[in-house]
Design brief:
Pfam families: HAMP, HATPase_c, HisKA. The chain is of the alpha+beta class. Helices cover about 55% and strands about 15% of the residues. It is built from 12 helices and 12 strands. Bound molecules: adenosine-5'-diphosphate and magnesium ion (MG). The site of adenosine-5'-diphosphate (ADP) has 23 residues, from α10 and α12.
């Protein structure tokens, strides 16, 4: 299969979408750009400095010769020494001087100049560029910088000579060539190395993100313990990791609550079912009288009622949690409702030798509430109070309202709740003394139901139980504006 252009484009665009690739490309391009700029500018500076130093040397020589011609025009020996001997003695960067009189006839010439340079070309090229330095190529390939200048002979300036100076700059050119060679070597090296360095930096930078992704990938309902360890992360990513860990904490907690809840449900359903099964098995083991059968059936019925109450409570809680649950609000006279609940529990209060009263408010407390749910909530609170108040105690129901809230309170003088258990009493299936409560028929769902009824109304529930002073539970429900009577 050959590569189609379109598939190459998609590969590139897929690569481009990765953060590592973008960072790598960015670092590499920036690095190459800077290296290129640095090398090129250094090269240009070096080249111009070399030219400048050569030109200064030439200007200096011109100046010396001019001075000699002007001040000592007859001292031919000194001139000859300057032109024929001094320059000829140099081994590197040799320079050549030619002195021409006003008829353009050579007067003095550095030996070997004609071998190195095409003198006719030199004269031609420098003729119109008086005192400017130009570059020409010598006969054997060496590069020269040359200049030519006019020089007055004698103080009275009887005539004018021409000085031509050429200096061999091939060594400087070689230096520049070596420099260019290394420039390309360094640039190629940078091409190879910068993407690697950039890739390492990018990898290092995004490693925390990848670790977070790996952790997230490992998380499932059976493995919620995994956490990110943000040591050494940059602070932005450390705070992201912290937020992520907090989310996992919350998830783990609610998962654990749900699985504890399911275990509790299974346990609480099993007990009555086992009881029914045990009774039935014992009853069937041999022939029984009809009275005995009756006892067994009654006992089974009791368990069945317990079971169906429990299932009813669970269903209620499940429905109350659903976002689709709604209230049937109506105008409720709360004082009247408390009295009904009191009446309902009158008999069991008498049985337990507990005084049960509903305190009457001076003004009627009326609010838009769901009557059935409110009855259920208050009923649960009264049942708890009666169950935990020893003979001789009292249970009081009361209600009052301010502008925004209805407060309904159930207080008793009972055994109270230990401080360490108080925060958990609204949890499902929580019982302070589970063995005792279980015997007395409590499932631990009563207060959970009270709380969800309060929350359905947009309210809340609070419980206090100062040691030795019984327990007070307060329901707080917001008062809704009274509905307009329809028709
Ligand atoms: N008025 C009260 N006085 C003392 N303890 C109480 C009172 N109300 C609730 N409790 C404690 O809180 C626990 C949870 O109450 P609840 O949710 O109604 O469950 P249940 O009544 O089924 O045990 C009870 O088991 C009991 O230990
Ligand atoms: Mg209860």
């Amino acid at each position: 299969m050959s590569w189609k252009p379109s598939s190459r484009i998609t590969t590139v665009s897929r690569l481009w979408r990765t953060l590592a690739f973008r960072l790598t490309a960015g670092y590499a391009l920036a690095g190459l750009f800077l290296v290129t700029i640095a090398i090129v500018s250094l090269y240009l500076v070096l080249e111009s400095e070399l030219d400048k130093s050569t030109d200064l040397f030439l200007a200096d020589k011109v100046h010396v010769l001019r001075t000699m011609l002007q001040e000592r025009p007859d001292d031919v020996d000194a001139l000859r020494e300057e032109i024929e001997l001094e320059s000829a003695a140099r081994q590197y960067e040799r320079f050549y001087i030619r002195l021409l009189d006003d008829q353009n006839t050579p007067v003095l010439t550095t030996p070997g100049m004609a071998d190195q340079l095409d003198l006719a070309q030199l004269a031609g090229k420098t003729k119109n560029h008086s005192e400017r330095t130009i570059r020409i190529k010598g006969s054997n390939g060496h590069a020269f910088r040359v200049t030519s200048a006019l020089a007055q002979v004698g103080l009275s300036a009887t005539h004018t000579d021409t000085v031509q100076i050429a200096i061999d700059v091939s060594q400087k050119e070689e230096l520049l060539a070596r420099y260019r060679f290394w420039f390309w070597v360094i640039l190629l090296g940078a091409f190879a190395i910068f993407p690697l360095i950039g890739y390492q930096i990018a990898r290092h930078g995004i490693r925390p993100v990848e670790e977070m992704a790996t952790t997230a990938r490992h998380i499932s309902s059976s493995n919620l313990k995994e956490r990110i360890r943000p040591e050494g992360y940059p602070s932005e990513l450390a705070s992201l990791a912290g937020t992520f860990n907090e989310m996992l904490d919350r998830l783990q907690e609610s998962f654990e609550r749900i699985s504890r809840f399911s275990a509790d449900i299974a346990h609480d359903l099993r007990t009555p079912v086992n009881n029914i099964r045990g009774e039935a098995e014992v009853a069937l083991a041999r022939a029984r009288t009809s009275g005995e059968y009756r006892d067994v059936i009654e006992s089974c019925l009791e368990e069945a009622v317990r079971l169906s109450d429990l299932i009813g409570d669970l269903l209620f809680l499940a429905r109350a949690e659903s976002p689709l649950s709604y209230l049937r609000r109506e105008r409720v006279d709360v004082g009247e409702l408390l009295d009904q609940v009191r009446e309902y529990y009158e008999a069991s209060a008498v049985d337990g030798e507990v005084s049960l009263t509903a305190a009457v408010a001076s003004e009627p407390v009326v609010a838009e509430l769901d009557r059935t749910l409110l009855q259920r909530a208050v009923g649960n609170l009264v049942a708890n109070a009666l169950a935990h108040t020893p003979p001789g105690g009292t249970v009081v129901l009361s209600a009052n309202a301010d502008v925004s809230t209805v407060h309904i309170e159930v207080s008793d003088t009972g055994i109270g709740i230990p401080a360490e258990a108080l925060p958990r009493v609204f949890d499902r299936f929580f019982r302070v003394d589970s063995a005792r409560s279980h015997g007395s028929g409590g499932t631990g769902l009563g207060l959970a139901i009270v709380k969800s009824i309060a929350q359905l109304h947009g309210g809340n529930v609070e419980i206090v139980s100062p040691p030795g002073h019984g327990t007070q539970v307060t329901l707080q429900m917001p008062v809704l504006p009274a509905r307009q009577p329809t028709m």
